[in-house]
Write a structure and sequence with these properties.
The protein is an alpha/beta fold and about 450 residues long. The protein contains 15 helices and twelve strands. The chain has two domains: about 15-190, Enolase-like, N-terminal domain (Enolase-like, domain 1, 2-Layer Sandwich); about 200-445, Enolase-like C-terminal domain (TIM Barrel, Alpha-Beta Barrel).
Length: about 450
């Protein structure tokens, strides 16, 4: 792993310095619970961060970053209240640390300095709050992501350009070798991440582990004008991508769930005369071992060859701690379908270990930080890995952030955007300002509009 270097102190005109930081929280209830990885979520707390920066030539701008505090996913070892409370307390610590940072440079230079400080703060907080387990790095990244996003956003706004326009040598003083190793000497992010977004991206509709699939599964209808079943969502949004959540641990139940979903989707698509659609399978670490995954795949291929052929990739089948799970290598499974890491991916070191263990793809997420997403996108492309972009039930500005990544990473298979399913109330203030981003048509999201300054999201007033 490449050694971390400090940010630069001798300022130039394109370097930024952090001037001011503040944060707030928002809370929303889900319209229906979302079950994944054996856990069920029915509410969300959103962390919003404002950051003011000054550049070396005197420009000033405010940036905005937003992220859901998905403690059930990022800190599963802690009870819900303890995990969320720790993340909210950590956000307060990060406000202080970010505001005290006196280094200058590009936002990725500052990320390089701030991330170790954030991790130390998380370790200290774990001790003072007597948590049942230390705050994991993934959890720290989720909290930090709103701060990192605000810094990138402010930087782009200071120069009146998309932050993706700033990933070239005229803005970045250091090449990728600093973070990714000597193979990247002389290369910058603009080699791997274009500044212009693709105009449209396919959206993966999330099928939660307890979601009703057809009318027979509905016991009490939600009367809010939105679909209640997968079969109703398909014609409403013209769905062509489906992310199937599986619990693991019960092979027969996982197998039956996939076969039944494939039957219902096939029926609904036939009614629409649609022949081309795809699946992804997400176990959220639920498979006890790789043998479980292999047996599951063999059964699905025998039962529904066409359904098996529609599987684009498999996401994080076994435990996230790869160092403790070295026996569960994915070489054989990855010969059947790409196997991507999600919860495991927290830095370059885990990416390299995953490759060694047979993983062939990575899931990029805005909730791990803009800086990390860009660096991992570059590394994955250099290593010839499969790429996808997932979210954390991101609404509002956090979805705009996630969609901006998805629309620019070459080869990305699509974007997950499930806040519209589970917490549409958190999108209402943003929906009219970004037509076709929060409301899906023909299974696609209109991402070509994401060209505004910074990350492209200006908070609505009031």
């Amino acid at each position: 792993m490449a050694p971390r270097a400090p940010a630069v102190r001798a300022s130039r005109s394109t370097d930024l310095r952090i001037v001011d930081v503040d944060h707030q929280f928002e809370e929303f209830r889900y319209r229906a619970p979302y079950k994944f990885g054996g856990r069920s979520v029915d509410r969300v707390t959103i962390l919003n961060v404002n950051c003011r920066v000054r550049t070396g030539d005197g420009r000033q701008a405010w940036g905005f970053g937003s992220m859901t505090l998905g403690n059930a996913w990022a800190f599963p070892a802690a009870p819900e209240d303890a995990g969320l409370g720790a993340m909210m307390a950590l956000a307060g610590e990060l406000v202080t640390l970010t505001g005290e940072c006196d280094d200058t440079g590009h936002p990725i230079d500052l990320f390089r300095v701030l991330e170790p400080a954030y991790l130390r703060a998380a370790a200290a907080l774990s001790r003072t709050r007597a948590l049942p387990a230390p705050i994991p790095k993934l959890c720290t990244l989720v909290v930090a992501s709103a701060f990192d996003a605000a810094i990138h956003d402010a930087y782009g706004k200071a120069f009146g350009v998309s932050c993706y326009e700033t990933y070239r040598p005229s803005f970045m003083r250091r090449d990728l070798a600093v973070d990714l190793g000597s193979e990247f000497k002389g290369e910058f992010l603009d080699r791997y991440v274009p500044s212009a977004p693709r105009p449209r991206m396919p959206v993966f509709h999330s099928v939660g582990a307890s979601d009703p699939l057809e009318d027979a599964d509905v016991f009490t209808r939600i009367d809010d004008g939105l679909p209640n079943t997968l079969e109703e969502w398909i014609p409403r949004d013209g769905l062509i991508r489906f992310k199937i959540k599986l619990n693991g641990g019960d092979l027969a139940a996982d197998f039956d769930r996939v076969v039944r979903i494939d039957r219902i989707v096939t029926r609904a698509q036939a009614a629409r005369r649609v022949a081309d659609w795809k699946y992804s399978l997400d176990f959220n670490e639920g498979c006890p071992n790789v043998a479980y995954l292999l047996e599951f795949l063999h059964r699905v291929r025998e039962a529904t060859p066409s359904g098996f052929d529609r599987i684009l990739y498999i996401e994080q089948p076994t435990a996230r701690d790869l160092q403790k799970d070295r026996a569960n290598v994915m070489h054989e499974a990855a010969r059947l379908r790409p196997v991507v890491i999600d919860e495991s991916l927290t830095d370059l070191e885990t990416l390299l270990l995953a490759r060694e263990m047979g993983y062939t793809g990575v899931a990029l997420k805005a909730c791990k930080g803009q800086s990390q997403a860009m660096l991992m996108a570059a590394a994955a492309q250099k290593f010839g890995m499969f790429l996808c972009v997932q979210d954390l039930t991101c609404p509002g500005a956090s979805l705009i952030h996630s969609a901006g990544i998805a629309a620019r990473v070459p080869g990305n298979a699509g974007i997950e955007a499930n806040a519209r399913q589970f917490v549409p109330s958190a999108n209402r203030a943003w929906d009219a300002r970004f037509p076709g981003l929060f409301t899906i048509d023909g299974g696609m999201m209109n991402t070509g509009q994401l060209t505004g300054p910074g990350l492209g999201a200006v908070p609505p007033r009031g």
